[in-house]
């Protein structure tokens, strides 16, 4: 079989056998199509170290025709990680090709971890106008992000019936289908309670939009804020405050993790609360 057919088989394997998220499959499709465009529809036995080296040079020298910008080192590594996963799949089904262990990743450019100091964090949490319904919602969003360390995609998926303010905890299914329990602070409970207190709808989503046409169908699913909408909400307040740090919902996740470690939490507990599969991902917070 040729490369194009095997790439399609690999993507179907990820979906059916590995229960991989559609976003990850979409990304792998993009990364591997770039490799296919570079090599042509070759036999997988023709993939060798020399070809991979030329492909890495191609990625390193590639520039966008519109922006004239190249690929960041970390992005180049994403392409190589996808290739390595594909080669691992070929080995699994006994297709002769390059050993995945021979595909090395380049050194990433050092990126400083973005966190907010105590003053900035307090300013951001206090920024929404809680006298307005969208401001009250935004305050609840910010408090929940900092209290739980949720990813923005996880926050956007929350439903009203998941939240138990008396127990101050709830379960979620995060990245890679991993289940975990997250905990709400007193402040997060207070603002979520106030936000839910002004909700006189029966919509299922926890965080809903207040602009555009109201659509009650399917329990108000179309009213749900998207991850991008939540990112824009945070961005709006960060810009208004004039922070030097370009803070995002993920910055609040970083701040959540560093705050736990500074206050004595052990790294394994932080790993579980963040939903990290690998402890090395959590260890970046010990260097802040």
Task: Write up what this structure looks like.
With 288 residues, the chain is mainly α. The protein has two domains: 3-102, Orthogonal Bundle (DNA polymerase, domain 1); 118-287, hpI Integrase, Chain A (Orthogonal Bundle). The chain has 13 helices and two strands; from the N terminus they run αααααααββαααααα. A two-stranded antiparallel ribbon has the order 1-2. α1 (3-16) packs antiparallel against α2, α2 packs across α4 (73-92) and α6 (133-148) runs antiparallel to α8. It is elongated and about 65 Å long.
Summarize the structure.
The protein has helices at 3-16, 22-39, 49-61, 73-92, 118-126, 133-148, 152-156, 186-197, 217-220, 227-241, 249-262, 267-274, 279-282; strands spanning 169-173, 179-183. The protein is mainly alpha-helical.
Q: Number of DSSP helices?
A: 13
The rounded Rg comes to 22 Å
Uncertain parts: none
Question: CATH homologous superfamily of the largest domain, by name?
Answer: Intergrase catalytic core
Report the CATH topology name of the largest domain. hpI Integrase, Chain A
* Major β-sheet annotation: 2 strands, antiparallel
Whole-number total of structural domains: 2
Structural class: mainly alpha
- How many DSSP-defined strands? 2
User: Helical residue percent?
Assistant: 40-55%
The helix-strand sequence is HHHHHHHEEHHHHHH
CATH class of the largest domain: Mainly Alpha
N→C terminal distance: 49 Å
The share of residues in extended strands comes to under 5%
The name of the CATH architecture of the largest domain is Orthogonal Bundle
Family: Belongs to the 'phage' integrase family.
Protein name: Tyrosine recombinase XerC
Keywords: DNA integration, DNA recombination, DNA-binding
Domain Core-binding (CB): 1-91
């Amino acid at each position: 079989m040729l490369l194009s057919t095997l790439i399609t088989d690999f993507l179907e394997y990820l979906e059916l056998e590995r229960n991989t998220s559609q976003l990850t499959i979409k990304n792998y499709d993009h990364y591997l199509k770039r490799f296919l465009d570079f090599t042509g529809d070759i036999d997988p036995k023709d993939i060798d170290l020399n070809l991979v080296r030329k492909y890495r040079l191609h990625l390193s020298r590639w520039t966008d025709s519109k922006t004239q910008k190249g690929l960041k080192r970390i992005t180049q590594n994403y392409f190589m990680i996808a290739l390595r996963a594909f080669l691992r799949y070929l080995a699994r089904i006994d297709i002769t090709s390059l050993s995945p262990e021979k595909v090395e990743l380049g050194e990433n450019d050092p990126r400083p971890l973005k966190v907010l100091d105590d003053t900035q964090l307090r300013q951001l949490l206090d920024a929404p106008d809680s006298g307005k319904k969208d401001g009250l919602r935004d305050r609840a969003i910010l408090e929940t992000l900092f209290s739980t360390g949720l990813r923005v995609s996880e926050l956007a998926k929350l439903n009203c019936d998941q939240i138990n303010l008396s127990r101050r905890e709830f379960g979620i299914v995060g990245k890679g289908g991993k289940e975990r329990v997250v905990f709400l602070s007193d402040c997060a409970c207070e603002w979520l309670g106030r936000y839910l207190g002004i909700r006189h709808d029966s919509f299922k989503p926890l965080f809903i939009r207040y602009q555009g046409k109201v659509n009650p169908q399917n329990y108000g699913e179309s009213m749900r804020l998207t991850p991008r909408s939540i990112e824009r909400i945070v961005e709006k307040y960060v810009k208004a405050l004039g922070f030097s740090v370009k803070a995002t919902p993920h910055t609040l996740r970083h701040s959540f993790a560093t705050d736990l470690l500074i206050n004595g939490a052990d790294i394994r507990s932080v790993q579980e609360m963040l939903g990290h599969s690998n402890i090395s991902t959590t260890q970046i917070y010990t260097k802040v």
